[in-house]
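Following the same procedure, backbone shapes were mapped to integers, yielding the entry below.
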Amino acid sequence: MRYVSNLPYTIKEEEHIWIPMSDGVRLSARVWRPTSSDGEPVPAVLECIPYRKRDLTSVRDSVHHPYIAGHGYACVRVDLRGTGESEGVLEDEYLEREQADAEEILAWLAEQPWCDGATGMMGISWGAFAALQVAARRPPSLRAVVIASFTDDRHADDMHYMGGAMLSDNLAEAGTMFAYATCPPDPAVVGDRWRAMWHERLENAGPWVLPWLRHQRRDDYWRHASVAENYADVRCPVLASSGWADGYSNAVTRLLGNLDVPRKGLIGPWSHKFPHLGEPGPAIGYLQEVVRWWDHWLKGADNGVMDGPMLRTWMQDSVPPSTSYEERPGRWVAEPTWPSPHITSVTHPLSRHRINPPDTTVPSEGEGGTMTVRSPLSVGQFAGKWASYNAPPDLPYDQREEDGGSLVFETEPLAERLEILGSPTVELELSADEPIAMVAARLSDVGPDGAATRVTYGLLNLTRRDDTEQPEPLEPGRRYRATVQLNGVAQAFPPGHRLRLSLSTSYWPLAWPPPRPALLSVYEGGSALTLPVRPADAPDEVPAAPFEEPEGTPPLPTTRLEPPEGRWEVRRDLVDYRAELEIVKDQGLIRYDEIGLDVGRRAYERYAAVADDFTSATGESTWTMRFRRDDWDVRVETHTRLACDENAFFVDATLDGYEGDRRVFSRTWNETVPRDLL
């Protein structure tokens, strides 16, 4: 990262201003804008997220918002109601009130004397969700959005559910927000009201996993704010990006294929990070791309930003399996449109342990042999996180041990290089001996030494094989057809390597297991793997180095007072057959020098099961958030535990608030949620 201070505009910063909402609540905002905007108004760019602008995101914000402001924009960072110094309570994600607030903020910005009436929205993750969702509401001042690491479909392709199977991130991220939504505001900003505001948050809090768990089907809860319900709602230009190591790797191409507005897509090798901070590398000069986007759509500059390909993406070369990478080798390729005219769907019939060439004759449907699999709960312990949050080691490790509990199909060694770009699919003719069953499909790159690197994967709850809104139990022994869609990827397989498709009936703890282990029968003749092949002679349509070096403004100064701790451990007890995955992400204690505030953040996750008792699966998420300045010393502790039997999920949670060593708030929850064919 190259830090720059000599920008076209001298800027001024307003560390805190109030933005009033129509219901009387005031939201806290931080503003960076050109000094000249006092007399020469500029467009405004808004980012709305719940992650505390004054401390927890202040360093990250200081790299990109002043940079964009220094190119002639008013950058406005707002904490959602009930977070940071904003008034009110945050009860759940993407509620109607949140989007109405954003519309009111945009209207307020457009009326400020330093704003020329044009606005944009940007963000990563929650901020990108918010920008896309608000774009679909068409506020009059909103001219364009820039979004990274997001989804357009809250049920099918978010941290909650995949293919109708519940992800463990449904618990982990619920634990994150349970903690963030109950943190206190800073007395240095809100004064003596901090305690009343904090207790309002504590008293109205609840474990976020409960609403997410009570909606196990695609229903109105998930349809709300899912742009995929009607892409035509979005009428402003969209610059969308993500990374292949991120859980949100699919939405960029869906937007490119479904929106009918000016749009550009960018997908790198990155985890859940902005592209200018991208890890694994290479990171790129993303902020320069963003400024060019705003210059065209907010200022009307004729700068050619819409020239060239619709999609630029990093074609990843083969790598040995590892739980983290500093860099991913590969090259930039581009597609003029999406779907791309260069990509061809190539179908490979499956036979006993074989991925066959496309022209192979196999038994016709219903006439071939039968292959069976009933996976142990240990399959999935090396799966990594649903989304890599750049907290290594959270990427998948060598798949050979996982493959021991899976049904495996494999090609012959490749005679020539093979490249794929898009979402592979697995078509299966199958039956199960239980009414509720799942299948996890993994595509791996197998080197000559046998090491297997997972390239992509997909999940399907077979009760939702045809309909995620009205699932139906399986009739044991009956044959069904089911399609498993794998996550999108750009991947090259070199000569001499093999492609391996692995099918398992569990993938714990990445996904919650079914109520009982199921024996899955897969039939030859009706099963195939389809790959989105990008031919070797397809034009790359980009220069070898299409992006500038990453730039940003110098980050705010901080001082580390206590060291961080990171741990990712898989343990197995061969006496009682208990297996555990334990994750620690402790940021230590950090002082934000300019405001004299010490902040500590510690997350602990634990996933456990005994032998192959699928009802023994448990997950825990524990957070501690601490804020200290002089004699003000406050912390929040949250704990959420999720367990199950064959018929229900059990949620036990606690919330404790402390001033110094004195506990000033405590509440517990013990809730039962029925399983709904899950």
User: Anything to note?
Assistant: DSSP finds eleven helices and 35 strands in the chain. The CA atoms of residues 276 and 286 lie 5 Å apart.
